[in-house]
Design brief:
This protein is α/β, with parallel strands linked by helices and about 240 residues long. The protein has nine helices and twelve strands. The chain has helices spanning about 15-30, 40-50, 65-75, 90-100, 110-125, 130, 165-175, 180-190, 200-210; strands at about 10-15, 35, 55-60, 80-85, 105, 135-140, 145, 150-155, 155-160, 180, 220-225, 230. Strands 2-1-3-4-5 form a five-stranded parallel β-sheet, sandwiched between helices. The longest helix is centred in the middle third of the chain and has 17 residues, at about 110-125.
Length: about 240
């Protein structure tokens, strides 16, 4: 018996009918509710109507490429996205993560691995859905971040952060699992259009880690995404 509820909905946007059918059949056998679109436009339309819990997205579609679809989805949702593609270079993978994907799987692929990643993303989003939604306070493990008081406490002890450190922490922890590029972090936290020096972000992240964690550079909840940026990883 599977522990996955039928309310878990997966949207597949894939123009290869054979691959889409195989993925759909496997996910349905695991108890998921699955919807399939073979074009980007249809995929975006179905995304709005079905409100999926996970999106499996091909990159090379006939009408709109997967990168653009991912960008459009990310403007309105933090839904987990798995990119499924034949593009296997490091640059492709970096671009995929930078655009907003949570996982990047290259073809050919294992259905077992795909299902495992879908389940993992669902567990993460369900377990930490409360972290992403509160307007004034975030509670995680032994830490409390209060937006109104502009304060951070851990085990009841106040942690003193600068304004930018606090804003950086709040942004990351308000979006668990979402990968922010350095440019995005700089734009949102420093309120400037252009990133002049990426070290500005790196330095603040390093200082923040030292203040909020016992082992700031070992399994940090603020995870470095190689050549891309940072994300809050609540599984750490």
């Amino acid at each position: 018996m599977t522990d996955t509820k039928m309310s878990n909905k997966v949207l597949i946007i894939e123009d290869d009918k054979e691959i889409a059918r195989l993925v759909e059949l496997r996910l349905r056998s695991e108890g998921f509710e699955v919807t399939w679109a073979d074009r980007g436009v249809d995929g975006l339309s179905k995304f709005d109507t079905m409100d999926p819990d996970v999106v499996i997205l091909d990159l090379m579609l006939d009408d709109i490429d997967g990168y653009e679809i991912c960008r459009r989805v990310r403007k309105k949702s933090n839904v987990p996205i798995i990119m499924l593609t034949a593009k296997s270079t490091e640059l492709d993978q970096v671009l995929g993560i930078a655009t907003g994907a949570d996982h990047y799987i290259t073809k050919p692929f294992s259905l077992n691995v795909l299902v495992a990643k879908v389940r993992g993303l669902l567990r993460r989003s369900q377990q930490f859905s409360a972290v992403a939604k509160p307007k004034d306070q975030i509670n995680f493990a032994d830490m409390i971040i209060d937006a109104k008081a502009h304060s951070v406490t851990r085990n009841g002890k106040r942690i003193h952060l600068t304004v930018k450190e606090f804003e950086l922490l709040w942004l990351l922890m308000s979006n668990p699992g979402k990968v922010f590029t350095r440019e995005e972090l700089f734009t949102k936290v420093w309120k400037k259009k252009t990133l002049v020096d990426c070290r500005t972000v790196d330095v603040h992240v390093n200082k923040l880690r030292k203040k909020i964690e016992d082992r700031p550079f070992s399994a940090s909840i603020i995870r470095t995404i190689h050549k891309v940026g940072y994300c809050f990883d609540p599984s750490m």
